[in-house]
Records
---
Amino acid sequence: MSLDPIQTLRSQTIAMPQENIDTDQIIPARYLTTTTREGLGKVLFYDWRYDVDGTVKAEAVLNNVDPEGHAILVGGHNFGCGSSREHAPWALADYGFKAVLSTKIADIFKSNAIKNGILAIEVSPEAHAWLMDNPGAEIEIDLEEKKVRLPNQMVENFEIEAFGRRCLLDGVDPLGFLQNSAEEIEAYEARTGKHAA
């Protein structure tokens, strides 16, 4: 799958301070019947954004911002815990998010996010506290240098596994990476006499 390449991302943030935001809160189980990503942004955090009758909750932060200018979500500690549903990053991406920051991000969610074109970055408690105290701040994420730059001059280094970083920089998912490497794979097989089963 082709994704938008990410080298440097500059955007305002949306802050959701709740801790232990799990994948069922990100996208409730009743919306997992679809096999496509389109439209899932409308049901992102559905139970936090709408009443049981579908009425929009005016106080819900996601109902009060323009997703175009707010591509970075700052979540509370332990973001993305719970089940491993891939629909969670699908819904975040369809809404318009390109990055999620927290002090702790569940490993399976982090892997699913990266595979679907979303940076999942763990930051220090100090940087996180500043982001929570300054919702809407414009920050910069530099994937080439693996740095998050805040307006207060704080610079955070972050870790990301090398293959996922390469895919995000190139704008491909893991399958797209393999497809782009087909000639090299075929050349290797020809050299070694090994062929894919």
---
Amino acid sequence: MISTLSWYDHRIFEWVQYNLHGSFLDTILVLIRDKFFWIPLYLAMISWVYNFHRSLFLWIIGATIFLIALTDQISSNVLKKKFQRVRPCREQYFSNQFEVSINCSSGFSFPSSHASNHSAIGVFYFCILGSSLPRGRYFLLFWPALIGFCQVFVGVHFPFDVLAGLTLGTITGLTTYFLYRYFASRFVKKGNN
């Protein structure tokens, strides 16, 4: 089963490398995967929360910091160390076949921390912004998938690394949201008494 999944993982990675490089995507997708590219989005989310959820602003920011720390620790310090999967840009076959678009990290590949962190933030804010941004919030679910795809495109992750990262981020995003709701609602009730 694992060998079959690995075979498909490698074939999808190869397809992306052979069929999508050599176009305008080479520049755009490298830029999109950079966390600094998304600073305006981060600032917009924080500003939106401040304007529309002011009474819970500090709770939401605190939950966001907790969420990022939790997701990053699970992906980087637990799962990557346990599975120790080599990045495609470090595998001899792929490193000889394909040119990596960015600097190849020496860390492990499974799961993608980019995908898990952005998915966790996206899912958490999707839930938070439900009432104040009912339609626009759907971008927050597409956004992590786009970043995950970029990780495959630039050659630093296999598709299943990204899928695992998106899954981990979704779970931690939802868990943090429900914890936030529980604790924030208790605090608000106590504050009103």
---
Amino acid sequence: MNSPDLTSTDTNTQRKYAFAGLSLALILFVIDQITKYLVRGYVLDNGGSVEITGFFNLSYVWNEGVSFGMMQSQTHWEIWGLIAIAAAITALFAVILWRADRLITAMGCGTIIGGSIGNIVDRIQFGAVYDFLDFHAYGYHWPSFNVADSCVLIGIAIIAYDSLFLTPKSEQKS
């Protein structure tokens, strides 16, 4: 049994990888938006926070800044500036996705794109990103996040893993 060629530069193969990455982005975007909608309603109906376990809650948090609430934006221009930066980064990963000659690269880019678009839509619609996954333990509290944030982080991890451990040494030098 032959294993799939993960380093093909065939244009048709690249298009298949791009389609797979974009399909994954669409699926993850939809999952992100559905979870935000459902959890937001559920949490609001239950007082703004729902304890799930001793270390995990569903919460009602609007993040007006970037990752983990840093750089909180208050003005209209700051919000649109964050949207523009996120859109530019998303476009960069779309270009990388389109040029991907490895399926794992395409899937990593698709994961980042889906998450990024999910948060961009929130920021356009609400002026902030809805975060609801709230972990805490032993007096430490991790900043709330959402499915889109998780997708971006996982996508970056996939691309980093691929670059560090899966890309053949001959490709890394060229």
---
Amino acid sequence: MTKPKVYFTKDVSPEILVKVYDALGIKLPGKVAVKLHSGEKGNPNYLHPEFVKPLVDHVNGTVVECNTAYAG
């Protein structure tokens, strides 16, 4: 059995997202959807659009938001 590769960085930045993608050695042809859940603006873990923009641009992708619906 082949052992999986694990990629880790202590640096969390838009540039590192692109470097990690490039390290995978995979090129995605055609239309690319970047699925993510950005969280809710104002919360401490909110993922700002500026953070993922370099990766989305690098893969010529479109963001596909994956929100959570809360039942009341």
